[in-house]
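QA checklist item 7 of 12: single-chain prediction sanity check.
[x] sequence parsed
[x] length recorded as 239
[x] structure emitted
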Amino acid sequence: MVSGYCLATTHHLSIHFMQRDRPQRERRLINAVGEIIAEEGFDQLGINKIAQKADVNKILIYRYFGGLKGLINAYVTQNKPVVSAPAIDVERLREASLEEFFDACNEYLVNEFRLLRGNVAAQEFLKADLLNVQGNNNQIAFEKEKQLRDMIDDLATLIHTKNGPAFAALLISGLTLLTLSGGQKKIVFGIDLQTDEGWSQIEAALANVFRGAYLYTKERLNDEGNLPGRERSPAEEPI
C-alpha cells in the first residue's frame, strides 16, 4: 500500500515538473527554429534537427505544437518574420502634386526593401512562400499582401489607371529577386548586391523608373502635374 502511494506521488510530481517546465521547453523549440533559419535556411527545418538544437525530446514538438507546421506557426506568431515599411498615406496624396505622388511611391519601395535586406528570417519565409515549401503558412504575410493590394488599388484610382497592380508586380518581383540574390551572395550584371554601393545603383535606377512613370502619367493626364481632381491654389493658377 505504501509502495503504491509512493509511486502515485512520484507520478504526480513528475507531471507537475513537466508542466512547470513546458513554457521553457516551448521557448527553446521556438528559438531553435529561428536559429536554424538564420544559420541554414527555412528548407533545413526538420523535427529531428530542431529537437537536437533545442536539446528537447522530439515527441514534445508533437505534444506541444501538433507537429512541425504548428511549431513554425508558433514561431511566426511570436517573431513576425515580415517587414513592413510605413504605408503610403493615400489621403494625404489626394492633395499632393503628381510628382509628390510618385516620389512617395518610390520612397515606400526603397524603405520596404531596405528593411527586407536586413531581415534574414523574413527573406527565408518569403523564399519558402515563393517555392511553396511545405510547412510555410505565414498568415501575417498573407494579411500584409492584402493590405498592399488595397493600397495599390487606392493609389491607382488617384491617377486614373488600371495598370497599377501590374506596374507594382513588376517592380516588387524584380526587387524581391535582387534581394534574395544578394542573400545568396550573387553578383547580377556586375552589381554586387551584398554592398551598399550596389544597392545605391539599384535605388538610383528605381528612382529613374518612377521619374519616367511620372512624366508618362503627366502627359497621359494632359495636365500641369496635378493629380486628377486636385484643386489648384490661387498661386498655382496659370497666368
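[x] summary fact logged: Confidence is low (pLDDT under 50) at residues 7-17, 232-239.
[ ] second reviewer sign-off
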